[in-house]
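Go through this fold for my students:
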Amino acid sequence: MDEIKWGIIGCGDVTEVKSGPAFNKVAHSQLVAVMRRDKAKAADYARRHSVKKWTTDAQNLINDPEVNAVYVATPPSSHAQYAKMAIEAGKPVYIEKPMCRTYKECAELNELARIKNVPVFVAYYRRALPGFLKVKELIEKGAIGTVRNVNIQLYKHAEEQVMESLPWRVDPEIAGGGHFYDLAAHQTDYLHFLFGDFHSVKSIVSNQAGLYSAEDMLAVSFLIGNGIVGSGTWCFSSSDVNDRDVIEIVGTKGRIEFSCFDFVPVKLVTTTGIEAFDFPKPEHVQQNLIQNVVKALRGEETPLSDGQSGAVTNKVMEEIVRDYYKKPIKTKK
């Protein structure tokens, strides 16, 4: 492919700043069509973002001869459906994370892509952001020695207003799980990018606040890569005074501390002191990964995040919450 001409299925909030405008800022890339079921919202998005075509029908967008690549930005429950439609039409597909609602859906999608010989990419854009690449560089050059331990803490306060209007992100039928699926997917994928496969995953998963049926409290332990011990706690049922977002990678010569979502400086802590590396949040956080996708389609780069790696993340997330969804554990507020 030479010029990549994109169509977006599901031009909602995630496409307003994070991704949508970036398609026109990457060389050899252009956003030419958008789809949303709401006619007025589709037309409004196209007008505001100077997109010449809009539709309320996904198949119409996929069949458009000018569109030669498709970005699926709908909630996870329809990722597999729309991605398969694009693949059947022979058009590469870039899918919002998580790749699908379930690992089974990911595997079926990847098999179809293999049969049709169509590339699949997943929007785990931290694999292409400078701060996260700096962490990878520090580890690979031995700045903290041999990695021994990884610890994740993500605490976000409970949003009681969801009792009145349930967001799709905490509806397992749509999202696959709750906030854990939506947010920890980035963390899980990034650790896989750094260290390789997860092993011996064990978890305690519960619902403490009772605001919705999905999980809101998790304690997880695992091995990753070549015997690195990992642990993580995720809490979505506390107060904002407890909010935190920290990933700590501990080695034999020091440690690295950074945030997954807050874009605070990466800290390297060794016996010589603390060194900070500041990487401010870019205007469009997906732009670097979209650039990689475009270059991969042009045969210029290897993809950083594809259907195979995206499926691995779904598999790990599913393993963590599996027992909870067999018999959800609920505790009193």
